[in-house]
Each structure stands twice: as structure tokens, then as C-alpha cells.
Specification:
Oligomer: heterodimer
Helix content of chain B: under 10%
Largest interface: A-B, 27 and 25 residues
Distance between the termini of chain B: 37 Å
Strand content of chain A: over 45%
Order of helices and strands of chain B: EEEEEEEEEEE
Number of strands of chain B: 11
Strand content of chain B: over 45%
Number of helices of chain B: 0
Shape of chain B: globular
Distance between the termini of chain A: 33 Å
Largest sheet of chain B: 6 strands, mixed
Helix content of chain A: under 10%
Radius of gyration of chain B: 14 Å
Order of helices and strands of chain A: EEEEEEEEHEE
Number of helices of chain A: 1
Radius of gyration of chain A: 13 Å
Number of strands of chain A: 10
Shape of chain A: globular
């Protein structure tokens, strides 16, 4: 597709359950980012993948959060044993050249933990 | 930690007026970018200004950058109701020892309302 695709668009889960969020970046974009945004707040950086380099995981809030990027394309963000404070919109972005062209964002996954 | 900080937090104007939003940041940057967000979903990239540039234009948008004051402004001229959105600045910080992190740090945004 032409844009960054995220699924699901909405997810409601019970506290303690695991969730997987998926991101399909734009083909050819080597850089992929996950951010999360709580209601009315700015974006909080979670993790960054660039080509075959080791990911920058410095933004992951706890060891319940992990992410993979398979084959340099699709990425999955996994949250284990979800808590209510994990409720947020999770945004994925990709870029061909972040220094020159900025990011293209997906529409996000709205996660609600009840 | 927050790098960019937008001001004001909220702005309400009439259609046809100009809207100015400001962003201040703390550390040296490679570039600064402005994004727009409708309805709390995906952000749209508006404009990128490099640290060696002082002003940039794109349509009705004008961005300035003052690296000595560590600040930027976004001006939207002749605003329209469709410009109603949240606007975020994001900085690509320069880590001299590492050649840069290439991850953007976003501010909390300015919520702009343009009344018809």
C-alpha cells in the first residue's frame, strides 16, 4: 500500500492479557518507529529500528513491552500482562531518510485496557 | 524527557486570521520538524527545517528557526476551518559523539481551532 498500515485500529483487552499490535511500513523505508500517545499528550518514543542495526529500545517503559521487526519490514509490538496505564494510542511511523524527509505515520491503534 | 515545548497550548482564531505557534527546545539539533494531527490519530509531516536554515515556506505555512534562542515558530496564513488540528514540533537532536540518534522527540502540541 501507499501508506503505513496499522492493525487493529482499536483493541479492547482485559487487564493481564497480552496484546500484539502490527505495523506495515511503506515499502523501502528502512527506519521504523513506535510511539505512544496518551489522551491529550505528546508522543512518547518507544523503540526504533533501522535496517539491520540493533534496535534502539531506550523508550520501552518496562520489560512487559517488546517489539520485533521481521525481514526489515513488518513490525509487531507486544505488550504482556497489560495494565490500565497501558491504555493509549500506539503510533507507528516509517521513513526512508529520517534526517531529510521526516516520518510517515500510520493511523494508530487505540488500546483500551479494562 | 520532553525536548520541544509548544506555546500556546491552545489557540482559537477566526477564519482568515493568521495563526502563530511557537516551539522551544533544549539541546542542539540536526533539524526541527512540524507535524499536524487530526482527531488524535496519525500525524502528518508538514515541514522540515535544518539547523543551518532560518526560514522555510510551504504554501500557507512559514517556519522560522532561531538556533541561538533554541526556538522555532510556525505561521499559518489566511487560516481555514480545515486547519483545525493539533500541531506538534519535533526535534532531531544532535548527539555529537554518536552522530545523531535519528529519533524525533515531540512536544505536547498546540491545539488550534479555526472558527468559521
Amino acid at each position: 500500500g501507499a501508506g503505513v498500515s496499522q492493525s487493529p485500529s482499536n483493541k479492547v483487552t482485559e487487564k493481564g492479557k497480552d496484546v500484539e499490535l502490527r505495523c506495515d511500513p511503506i515499502s523501502g523505508h528502512t527506519a521504523l518507529y513506535w510511539y505512544r500517545q496518551s489522551l491529550g499528550q505528546g508522543l512518547e518514543f518507544l523503540i526504533y529500528f533501522q535496517g539491520n542495526s540493533a534496535p534502539d529500545k531506550s523508550g520501552l517503559p518496562s520489560d512487559r513491552f517488546s517489539a520485533e521487526r521481521t525481514g526489515g519490514s513488518v513490525s509487531t509490538l507486544t505488550i504482556q500482562r497489560t495494565q490500565q496505564e497501558d491504555s493509549a494510542v500506539y503510533l507507528c511511523a516509517s521513513s526512508f531518510s529520517p534526517r531529510n524527509y521526516g516520518y510517515t505515520f500510520g493511523s494508530g491503534t487505540r488500546l483500551t485496557v479494562v | 524527557s520532553q525536548q520541544g515545548e509548544e506555546d500556546p497550548q491552545a489557540l482559537s482564531i477566526q477564519e482568515g486570521e493568521n495563526a502563530t505557534m511557537n516551539c522551544s527546545y533544549k539541546t542542539s539539533i540536526n533539524n526541527l520538524q512540524w507535524y499536524r494531527q487530526n482527531s488524535g490519530r496519525g500525524l502528518v509531516h508538514l515541514i522540515l527545517i535544518r539547523s543551518n536554515e532560518r526560514e522555510k515556506h510551504s504554501g500557507r505555512l512559514r517556519v522560522t528557526l532561531d538556533t541561538s534562542k533554541k526556538s522555532s515558530s510556525l505561521l499559518i496564513t489566511a487560516s481555514r476551518a480545515a486547519d483545525t488540528a493539533s500541531y506538534f514540533c519535533a526535534t532531531d537532536t544532535l548527539h555529537i559523539t554518536q552522530g545523531g540518534s535519528e529519533k524525533l522527540v515531540f512536544g505536547k502540541g498546540t491545539k488550534l481551532t479555526v472558527n468559521p
